[in-house]
Backbone:
């Protein structure tokens, strides 16, 4: 690869730690390792976490300072946009898309969720016209799984939409220690109602109240507008809150856990990195049966459920009654997770970037 090739990476970067933000860090590393000069433009404008996605708020006017880097487009060979799924999440990329189109640059869009098409159908007429025009300018689109290709049905020919599975940043190095009594249960995600934290807490309260032998740990970024959730966790002495974790501390949590839970309420969930990470550590996974998750998981990897506390309780009780299933699923998941390694992500991503 010629060193002078420039890759303009436009999208959000950490903090906060979201799947999209983490993926952009990985894309940066992948392209640099392949000899490209990467010129990042950070579109993250709020470093905290709340539920205001897609809403107009004053702090979002800060996005205009990112346009000071519009000149990156002139020297870029590939203009890569990691867009959002709301109207604002799309239109804030408009200056980059328009300039790249005028200059005849190759443009690639990477979608890290599964709600684009659904949201688009709810847009006003003028919002649809603007969004469709912008999204139709891209030469290629990347999605996380086969079912997510449908998000671009209205914007691009399917031959220009490619699948690149997400990746796990962590990897277990040894089998799980099964010497403890009962089961260890982990919730690791942002502490938003949409991620199923309240369903999880309701289920754990019931298991604790009925005397079942479970140990529970929770990690993740609290929502600034739902600090009552953090208070609820703190008030339960049998639940350990581990804060925001990364790197070795995150791996230790996955190694500790027998069961990983993500009862997301988002029917248009993407492909959460935490589920792939839990796979790589051999966790039994209990997650919501939604397309973004069921594209990569089946009953061989754990249990796919409708996200209500009764279903989560039933799944855990089945494990308590037949703990040997944990060993079988651990072996299956350790083998299966090879499909989601960083090296596999790198190969798939570069194949798409370098394809004609």
Residues:
């Amino acid at each position: 690869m010629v060193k002078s090739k420039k890759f303009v990476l436009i999208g959000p970067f950490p903090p906060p730690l979201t799947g999209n933000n983490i993926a952009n860090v990985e894309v940066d590393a992948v392209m640099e390792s392949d000899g490209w000069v990467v010129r990042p433009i950070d579109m993250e404008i709020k470093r905290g976490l709340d539920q205001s996605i897609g809403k107009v708020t004053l702090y979002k006017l800060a996005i205009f300072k990112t346009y000071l880097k519009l000149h990156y487009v002139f020297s870029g060979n590939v203009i890569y946009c990691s867009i959002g799924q709301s109207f604002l999440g799309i239109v804030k990329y408009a200056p980059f898309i328009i300039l790249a189109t005028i200059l005849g640059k190759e443009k690639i869009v990477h979608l890290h969720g599964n709600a684009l098409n659904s949201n688009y159908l709810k847009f006003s007429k003028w919002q649809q016209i603007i969004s469709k025009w912008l999204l139709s300018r891209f030469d290629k689109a990347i999605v996380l799984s086969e079912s997510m290709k449908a998000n671009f049905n209205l914007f691009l020919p399917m031959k220009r939409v490619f699948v690149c599975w997400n990746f796990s940043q962590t990897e277990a190095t040894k089998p799980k220690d099964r010497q403890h009594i009962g089961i260890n249960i982990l919730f690791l995600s942002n502490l938003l109602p949409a991620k199923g934290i309240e369903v999880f807490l309701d289920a754990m309260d019931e298991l604790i109240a009925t005397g079942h032998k479970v140990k529970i740990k929770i990690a993740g970024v609290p929502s600034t507008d739902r600090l009552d959730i953090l208070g609820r966790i703190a008030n339960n002495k049998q639940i350990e809150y581990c804060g925001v974790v990364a790197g070795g501390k995150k791996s230790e949590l996955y190694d500790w856990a027998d069961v990983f839970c993500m009862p997301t309420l988002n029917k248009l969930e993407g492909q959460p990195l935490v589920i792939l990470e839990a796979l790589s550590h051999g966790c039994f996974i209990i997650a919501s049966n939604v397309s973004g998750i069921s594209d990569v998981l089946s009953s061989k990897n754990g249990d796919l459920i409708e996200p209500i506390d009764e279903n989560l309780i039933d799944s855990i009780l089945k494990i308590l009654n037949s703990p040997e299933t944990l060993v079988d699923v651990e072996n299956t998941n350790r083998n299966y997770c090879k499909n989601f390694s960083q090296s596999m992500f790198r190969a798939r991503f570069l194949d798409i970037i370098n394809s004609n």
Observations:
- The chain has 14 helices and twelve strands.
